[in-house]
Amino acid sequence: LELQRRTKDRQERATVEQVLDRRTRAYLAKLFRQGALLAVHGCIATGKEANVYFGRSHPPNEPESVVVSAAIKVYKTSILIFRDREKYIAGERRFRYGYGKPRNPRKMVKLWAEKEFRNLSRLCRANIPCPSPFYIRGHVLVMQFIGDEEGTPAPRLQEVRARRRAPSLSAEGASRGEEGVSSAPETMTEAATTPAESLYEQTVINMRRMYQKARLVHGDLSSFNILLWQGRIYFVDVSQSMEQDHPLALDFLRRDCQNITAFFQAEMGNAEANEGMILLSVRNLFEYIVDVWDDVDDIALLQKYQTRQEEQRRRRVSRSAQHADDELLSDDSTDALVFQSVRIPRRLDEVDEEQLDRIYYDRLLRLASSSSSSSYSSSASDSYTGASSALSAEVARSDDKSDHEVSS
Ligand code: ADP
Ligand code: MG
């Protein structure tokens, strides 16, 4: 196994040696023997749960001569965070059968890596931009590298923003994110010139496609897990993405919507020229993603929601002109507050089986009371029509589930 290091940085070397334990080296050696992997270079990102390396790979189902850049994600096997994820995986349809309940954290990490591999495959099949998965061996995932041939990874949206905010910011400063990703200044400049509106539209259209076509909710979507390369966005980090019918899927989807909306709101407020750019409210974005109309294409539907957003805004403006003292009603934050008031666990692994049941039950109660409460429906009735269909779809789904449980 030939391990090349791109820099002599002492810290980086320490990371390489720390993560590439005996077992990891054995998996890598196997990939090398099989001709799947041709080189592993430096570390491009060190995260809480995984380190990502740059390398060269021969992708599966390609002629032998084809060699491409690869990202090699090595999950950390020693950390506690994976221990409790068993509950989450155990609750998933795809993992319900065929696996016992592994007590061994190392085995859990393998399941986790496998899940990311499967989720990436699903996204690719649904034409959602993400790295193509190449190989999975234990806790080592080899995938398409998003970035240049020299091994500079595509910047994350978060870094693109840092660059936009402070043009004088050095690449080093911009890349000193929470997970320590390195990006070159050229990349940042190129990315910084991409129009923000297209980024927003790409992001939300692909959130919808992920939900509708891949039937998955990302669950950890934020400007840290979206890469920008040559004007296109890519979703990464899908190991915890969950089935659409997971009891917490809609809660996580709502949080994804909040993260994305907050990011672009700040971005819009900062950009000098954003004419024609209509940002959906968190609620409208959520509605757009779950909307079941499938006779309209994703882009046309987004335009429809943007028109609705504008109409709501205009109505609010005229209403607040009429009742200057009625500030609260004129603000759609009231609506947003109702929508966002329920606490979502930060990550799925914070929830145990009992909590999951309770959250689910509470939500049903809440849905039941909100759909029968006239004050709720009258305040919301003029602003949107799709929400009730989403809520009733959710109730319907939960009914299905209890039917299913009763019958089984
Ligand atoms: P973690 O769970 O540790 O956050 P991620 O999958 O988000 O792991 O990867 C960490 C970082 O590595 C990402 O934020 C991104 O900058 C970089 N990265 C991950 N996958 C790729 C890839 N296929 N191509 C380029 N960079 C990547
Ligand atoms: Mg990440």
Name its key features:
5-stranded antiparallel beta sheet; Phosphorylase Kinase, domain 1; 408 residues; binds adenosine-5'-diphosphate; 2 domains; binds magnesium ion
Detailed description of the structure:
The protein is α+β, with helices and mostly antiparallel strands and 408 residues long. The chain folds into 2 domains: 1-145, Phosphorylase Kinase, domain 1 (2-Layer Sandwich); 194-401, Orthogonal Bundle (Transferase(Phosphotransferase), domain 1). It has helices at residues 10-19, 22-33, 85-90, 93-96, 105-125, 157-165, 171-175, 185-192, 196-212, 249-270, 282-290, 298-322, 327-330, 333-340, 353-372, 374-381, 386-407, and strands spanning 37-46, 50-57, 68-75, 133-137, 140-144, 216-217, 226-229, 232-235, 242-243. It has a 5-stranded antiparallel beta sheet, sandwiched between helices. A two-stranded antiparallel sheet has the order 6-9. Helix 9 crosses helix 11 (282-290), helix 10 crosses helix 11 (282-290) and helix 15 packs across helix 17. The longest helix is centred in the last third of the chain and has 25 residues, at 298-322. The radius of gyration is 23 Å and the shape is globular. 36% of the residues are buried. The structure holds adenosine-5'-diphosphate and magnesium ion. The site of adenosine-5'-diphosphate (ADP) has 24 residues, from strand 1, strand 2, strand 3 and strand 5.
